[in-house]
């Protein structure tokens, strides 16, 4: 699919070859006609998903520092793009000026500005009439024109100057932007010049972008009619011929060019489709500040050889090459000072290492490699660690392996010798991953420059001689080390990495190539490869396969890689390989030679090592490649390949990769057996052409088909393409919220904006109600009845059934009627057993499926105040999901009904939550089997009608929106970087220091208690925060107070248990300390009903110890409720309690916070 730019070049070439007649510019009428055709053919998604979205975000950011907006628009056309903004944003625009040289457009713009759009004018809050100028934007006379027309102060300036598709034909673009920057308002700061442009990047010759974004999938659809083509082609070319006969001849030729270059939309011959990618760039007042940086840091002159074909098309503002760490610091200080960004260049494989008009920092000078034995450095804190290797951020994998092998060692790196630090930090999958884990798992320490402060940091275990003199050891190093091990390019500029090493093995490489006669044989071979070979291999071996097309036939290539530190042991493993037939090749190689053995380089397509090609890859993680649905997608993908050399590489994982927990490092995908590397290939000379774009679209199309069946996505491949955002959601899985939070801490100035896309902190629903219960209890009806009650309080509400996605997939695979499955209760109950079995099978294939479905539901409800989620039947869902969205309050309402009522409603199930029996947990506390989770509320739904539901919402749910809770929350002061850097401390106890604070807090605790206070026998609290609130509450309700203290502070007789340190800001050494807590032995009677009061629920360690203590006193789990002032779900306190058998303890919190 050709772009408009390529079409323009083709039209120019055809006109030159057809006639030598002189050319003349388009008239206003000709331009207007062509523009209208362009606008009619442009997909609305380009405006809705890109232009309006980006513009809205920019304006919202400006409104954080000002109450209203002044706008200057250059070339708005017949109506301003501002008219597509939300009414809220449009009402903030109080001053508007525009330059529009086209007389027809100018007249239509004036009419548009004075016409009502619905009930109001497009810009209804202007303080003065719009200042419109029917002339080109001329820099020399701009300020004079504006002031003469509107009578405004020339120095007033604008908050935003907007070029929306209006830079075409403008020359000296750098000069235009430089002069336009002078029109920005001086106070408040933050004004910007914004440019939207079709078809490729703009070169501004050394000016630095403040922000860029792209929308590569935009399209233009053009009616395949002579009249439309004759009007559109001159608009694209920018001229017509002066001679009428020559013009007629050229237009006839141009029609043919459009029909050749325009892709027909499927079988639709009526429309031609052209690619129309969009790009947005913004400039702030500091766009000209590059000389400040180049005066301090060495600059790279001349062309740079880059691996990534996309970045080869990019021209950075400048390329600097630091030779000392202080140079890196100077880059960071410069970026922070001027609110600008940097890209980091290592191996040059990533899609974001170089970006147009952004400063690129080439780290290649940091290329030292040194091996450190365990005896050489006494500063190491990890006992028993063997040799390590310290590598600079400018090193390549091949150099590291070669250096390590000189000492008989290796590091588990990827399969490409030219990759750099970006891959190590994003995972790193290679042929030793099954035995030693990912490359990022081998990272033990790092030196980096902080992009929040410019300081030099060392984290983890860095040998003393490799710690720079001015480096500091940050107190939040655990979080930073966790983050760089899987998402590392986002959190600082890495200078060096310390790896754990292993004894270097020797490798046996055997290859087989199997021609496949048809799809059935292909499916059989994929199944046999998975079941008979891959699944039977020991960790020291791995098997890869390749699907490709050659000699007019589908082929399956298989590579078996065996590794051993004992060369004589290679080939002696007992493997049944007869079904593979004769081996095509067999080699014994070392770690360096391993790089040259990949089948794509040596066997496929007659060998590709000498062929100059470019590649584009994306890699979903798959569990069962032999299943029919996955095999069919892979086979269809190869058949639809757009170029002969495209292929699919199935790279085996499993083994040691899965030894780490999902949240052990930032790498979010552990449960998979193969990375499916969908690889698009084209000839190098086709870089930047429609062929390259078609290949990329093919990769994304295959990814779209595989994504629902995948267990994640490899983040190392992801870049700035908007289509990668949804892939990034799968890449980081349940680690996404934590990474989004850490990004705001470690990169608060957005210095590293061009990296693997992490989720941004967005306005998620602040109140999430999980409506749970068995079938036919009325969950959906309950949720629907809640909506008008909340809406009557001016709260926006959304209902999402979390099971609808699974139902859709089930319907597609079984030819079931989806509409009936969603809305017909009897039909749904008929399919429930099969649907349940389908979901369980999916969950077995994708263990994190519940978390993915939950996050998908929450993110789809962005902007809502209240989200009700139905269709959920997970046990203890708050425990499972609350840490995923720690800044939202989550409650569970379990809807129950009698068996008789459920049967009347069509249920075929015969169990009930009410059918439970008693058992004991590990600590002797009795709880009810089936209730090792307790919902926030239970709603009995046997009555007909809505009145009981409405009453319940008003009495139990609306209190969460009472202004008293907001008042209480405002009393909790946020203290940054206390008690150590990176901690956003919430000073909960300060409530008591404010007038009326203690009274308000205890009254809210009293109101939110889960029981009638007359049924409570004891209030229990633990020092010190619990004492403060519980003592006042006990006085108010006149209930005895039981205090829990450190052992030795109460007189005997007492009972005690061990408690580990729980403060989240403690160091690891402090956290390892254990203490004992105790209470009076006879302070609680067997069978007492207890409410436990505390100030904070974070890690849950304090509550766990107190609950264990109560269990020792004979208190039943269901007889205990917990009330806390503030909860921090990110620390998974509820999960700890449930893991130790206390999930049945009811917990309520007044306040919920996402940080610490």
Automatic annotation (TrEMBL):
Which SUPFAM superfamilies does the protein's record reference? FAD-binding/transporter-associated domain-like (SSF56176), PRTase-like (SSF53271), S-adenosyl-L-methionine-dependent methyltransferases (SSF53335)
A Pfam family that this protein carries is P-mevalo_kinase
State the species of origin. Calycina marina
Basic and acidic residues bias spans: 911-927
Keyword tags: FAD, Flavoprotein, Oxidoreductase, Transferase
Residues annotated as region Disordered?
A: 899-927
Q: Which domain of life is it from?
A: Eukaryota
Drop me one GO molecular function for this one: phosphomevalonate kinase activity
For whether the record's keyword set contains RNA-binding, the answer is no
What biological process terms from GO does the record include?
cholesterol biosynthetic process
A GO CC term assigned to this protein in UniProt: cytoplasm
Family label: Belongs to the oxygen-dependent FAD-linked oxidoreductase family.
Query: Can the keyword Transferase be found in this entry's annotation?
Result: yes
**What's the name of the protein?**
Phosphoribosyl transferase domain protein
Name all FAD-binding PCMH-type domain ranges.
312-504
Task: Give the organism's phylogenetic lineage.
Answer: Eukaryota, Fungi, Dikarya, Ascomycota, Pezizomycotina
């Amino acid at each position: 699919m050709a772009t408009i730019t390529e079409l323009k070049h083709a039209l120019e070439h055809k006109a030159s070859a057809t006639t030598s007649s002189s050319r003349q510019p388009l008239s206003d009428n000709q331009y207007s006609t062509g523009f209208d055709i362009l606008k009619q053919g442009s997909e609305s998604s380009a405006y809705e998903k890109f232009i309006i979205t980006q513009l809205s975000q920019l304006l919202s950011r400006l409104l954080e520092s000002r109450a209203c907006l002044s706008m200057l628009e250059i070339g708005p056309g017949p109506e301003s793009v501002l008219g597509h903004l939300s009414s809220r944003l449009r009402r903030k625009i109080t001053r508007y000026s525009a330059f529009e040289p086209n007389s027809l457009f100018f007249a239509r713009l004036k009419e548009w500005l004075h016409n009502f759009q619905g009930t109001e004018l497009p810009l209804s809050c202007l303080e003065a009439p719009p200042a419109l100028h029917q002339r080109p934007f001329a820099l020399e006379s701009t300020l004079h024109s504006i002031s003469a027309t509107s009578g405004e102060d020339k120095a007033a300036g604008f908050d935003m100057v907007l070029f929306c598709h209006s830079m075409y034909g403008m020359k000296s673009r750098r000069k235009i932007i430089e002069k336009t920057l002078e029109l920005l308002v001086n106070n408040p700061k933050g004004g910007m010049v914004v440019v939207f442009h079709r078809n490729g990047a703009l070169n501004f010759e050394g000016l630095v972008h403040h922000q860029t974004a792209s929308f590569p999938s935009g399209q233009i659809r053009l009616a395949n009619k002579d009249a439309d083509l004759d009007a559109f082609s001159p608009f694209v070319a920018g001229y017509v011929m002066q001679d009428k006969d020559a013009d007629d001849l050229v237009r006839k030729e141009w029609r043919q060019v459009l029909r050749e270059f325009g892709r027909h939309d499927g079988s639709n011959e009526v429309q031609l489709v052209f690619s129309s990618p969009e790009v947005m760039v913004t400039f702030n007042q500091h766009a000209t500040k590059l000389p400040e940086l180049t005066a301090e840091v060495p600059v790279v002159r001349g062309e740079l050889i880059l691996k990534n074909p996309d970045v080869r098309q990019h021209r950075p503002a400048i390329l600097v090459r630091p030779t000392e760490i202080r140079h890196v610091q100077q880059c960071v200080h410069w970026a922070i000072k001027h609110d600008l960004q940097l890209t980091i260049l290592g191996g040059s494989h990533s899609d974001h290492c170089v970006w147009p008009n952004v400063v690129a920092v080439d780290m290649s000078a940091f290329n030292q490699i040194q091996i450190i034995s365990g005896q050489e450095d006494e500063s190491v804190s990890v006992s028993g660690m063997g040799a390590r290797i310290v590598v600079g951020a400018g090193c390549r994998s091949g150099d590291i392996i070669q250096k390590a092998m000189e000492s008989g060692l290796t590091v588990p790196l990827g399969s490409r010798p030219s990759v750099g630090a970006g891959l190590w930090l994003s995972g790193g999958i290679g042929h030793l991953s099954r035995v030693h884990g990912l490359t990022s798992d081998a990272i033990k320490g790092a030196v980096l420059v902080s992009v929040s402060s410019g300081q030099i940091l060392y984290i983890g275990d860095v040998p003393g001689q490799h710690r720079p003199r001015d480096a500091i050891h940050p107190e939040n190093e655990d979080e930073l080390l966790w983050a760089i091990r899987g998402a590392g390019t986002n959190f600082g500029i890495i200078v060096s990495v310390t790896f754990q090493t292993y004894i270097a093995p020797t490798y046996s490489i055997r290859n087989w190539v199997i021609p496949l006669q048809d799809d059935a044989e292909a499916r059989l071979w994929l199944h046999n490869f998975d079941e008979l070979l891959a699944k039977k291999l020991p960790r020291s071996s791995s098997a890869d396969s390749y699907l490709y097309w050659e000699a007019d036939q589908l082929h399956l290539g298989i590579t078996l890689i065996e590794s051993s530190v004992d060369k004589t042991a290679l080939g002696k493993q007992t493997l049944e390989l007869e079904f593979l037939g004769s081996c095509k090749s067999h080699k014994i190689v070392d770690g360096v030679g391993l790089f040259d053995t990949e089948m794509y380089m040596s066997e496929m397509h007659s060998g590709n090592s000498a062929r100059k090609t470019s590649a584009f890859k994306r890699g979903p993680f798959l569990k069962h490649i032999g299943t029919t649905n996955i095999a069919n997608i892979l086979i269809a993908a190869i058949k639809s390949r757009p170029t002969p050399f495209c292929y699919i590489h199935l790279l085996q994982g499993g083994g040691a990769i899965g030894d780490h927990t999902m949240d052990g490092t930032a790498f979010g995908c552990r449960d998979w057996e193969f990375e499916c590397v969908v690889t698009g290939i084209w000839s190098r000379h086709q870089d930047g052409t429609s062929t390259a774009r078609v290949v990329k679209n093919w990769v994304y199309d295959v990814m779209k088909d595989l994504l629902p069946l995948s267990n994640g996505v490899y983040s190392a491949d992801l870049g700035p393409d908007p289509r990668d955002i949804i892939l990034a959601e799968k890449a980081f899985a349940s680690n996404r919220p934590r990474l989004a939070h850490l990004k705001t801490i470690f990169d608060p100035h957005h210095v590293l904006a061009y990296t693997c896309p992490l989720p941004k902190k967005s306005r998620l629903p602040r109140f999430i109600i999980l409506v749970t219960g068995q079938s036919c209890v009325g969950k959906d009806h309950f949720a629907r009845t809640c909506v008008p009650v909340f809406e009557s309080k001016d709260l926006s509400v959304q209902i999402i059934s979390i099971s609808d996605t699974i139902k859709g997939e089930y319907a597609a695979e079984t030819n079931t009627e989806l509409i009936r499955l969603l809305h017909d209760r009897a039909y749904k109950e008929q399919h429930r057993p099969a649907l349940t079995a389908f979901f369980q099978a999916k969950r077995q294939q994708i263990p994190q499926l519940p978390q993915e479905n939950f996050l998908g539901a929450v993110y789809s409800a962005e902007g809502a105040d209240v989200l009700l989620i139905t269709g959920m039947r997970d046990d203890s869902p708050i425990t499972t999901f609350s840490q995923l969205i720690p800044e939202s309050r989550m409650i569970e309402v379990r809807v129950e009904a009698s068996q008789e009522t459920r049967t009347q409603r069509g249920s075929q199930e015969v169990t009930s939550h009410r059918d439970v029996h008693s058992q004991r947990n590990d600590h002797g506390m009795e709880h009810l089997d089936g209730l090792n989770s307790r919902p926030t509320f239970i709603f009995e739904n046997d009555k007909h009608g809505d009145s009981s539901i409405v009453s319940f919402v008003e009495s139990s749910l609306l209190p969460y929106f009472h202004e008293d809770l907001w008042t209480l929350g405002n009393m909790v002061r946020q203290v940054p970087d206390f008690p150590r850097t990176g901690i956003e401390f919430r000073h909960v106890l300060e409530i008591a220091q404010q007038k009326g604070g203690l009274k308000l807090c205890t009254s809210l605790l009293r109101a939110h208690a889960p029981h009638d206070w007359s049924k409570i026998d004891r209030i229990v609290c633990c020092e010190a925060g619990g004492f403060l609130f519980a003592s006042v509450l006990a006085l108010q309700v006149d209930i005895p107070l039981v205090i829990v203290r450190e052992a030795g502070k109460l007189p005997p007789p007492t009972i005690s248990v061990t408690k580990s340190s729980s403060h989240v800001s403690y160091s690891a050494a402090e956290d390892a300390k254990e203490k004992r807590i105790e209470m009076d032995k006879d302070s609680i009677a067997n069978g007492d009903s207890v409410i436990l009061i505390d100030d904070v629920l974070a890690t849950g360690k304090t509550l766990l110890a107190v609950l264990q203590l109560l269990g020792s006193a004979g208190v039943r789990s269901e007889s205990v409720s917990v009330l806390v002032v503030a909860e921090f779900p990110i620390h998974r306190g509820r999960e700890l309690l449930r893991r130790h058998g206390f999930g049945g303890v009811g917990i309520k919190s007044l306040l919920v916070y996402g940080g610490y």
